Amino acid sequence: MSTTKIQSRRRLIVAVLLCVAVGGAVVRHYAAPGSTTRDIATLLMVLWVPIIGNVIAWLIGKRPRRAPPPAPPGFDDLGAFTPSVLAEITFRKPALPSQDIPIAPGEYRCALVLDKEGFSARWVVPPGDALERGKPATLEIEFLSPAVALPRFPVGESFRVLIGDSFVADGRILQLRPAPA
Q1: Sign of dihedral through CA atoms 76, 125, 121, 146?
Q2: In the chain, N or C terminus with fewer CB closer than 10 Å?
Q3: Burial 82-117 (b: 16+ CB within 10 A, else e)
Q4: Which CA distances in Å does 132 have to 51, 93, 137, 171?
């Protein structure tokens, strides 16, 4: 069914229910108090309740909506990979031996966590290379907001790597990379 067909049926149902409710009000007005006719007319008048709900929903639907807030900047806005730090990272062994596979080449996004603060970062495993879990690896890491993160990551600072809702690695800063001119 198309949207306009559904909308026209809804309008018809609202009109019929409204007519029945108005008819019930008229019958109730002329019926004798305490009679069955007056009680049935009162029930017919109750049919205005779903009509009012539909009218309110229609009015809310007609109200202009605010534009959604702009999305926060992401790595896709930054473009090319520009390392902020050189770090030694040791990926934790998984709980299941079947998941103990090397980290494949590609770009990885994470949060580097100090105490209760997380900083968005990414690193790249070069093509043809793979990182073994449980063994330290030296990686260049780029922060999403280096101006905010770098003061918190001096050389020698230890951190945890959070991907999704799991800590997958531990690391420490070996060297700060100069910002490109």
Answers
A1: negative
A2: C
A3: ebbbebebbbeeeeeeeeeeebeeeebebbbeeeee
A4: 65, 9, 8, 14
CA-CA distance, 156 to 113, in Å (whole number)?
14
38's tokens: 């007056």
What whole-number distance in Å separates Cα of residue 20 and Cα of residue 129? 76
β-sheet bridge partners, residue 136: 90
**For 106, what's the count of Cα atoms within 13 Å in the CB-facing half-sphere?**
5
pLDDT tens sequence for the chain (181 residues): 556 787 788 788 888 888 888 899 999 999 999 899 998 988 888 877 777 777 788 788 888 888 888 876 777 666 788 888 999 999 998 888 877 888 889 889 999 999 889 999 999 888 888 888 889 999 999 998 888 899 999 999 999 999 888 899 999 999 998 766 5
- Count of Cβ atoms closer than 10 Å to residue 74 Cβ: 11
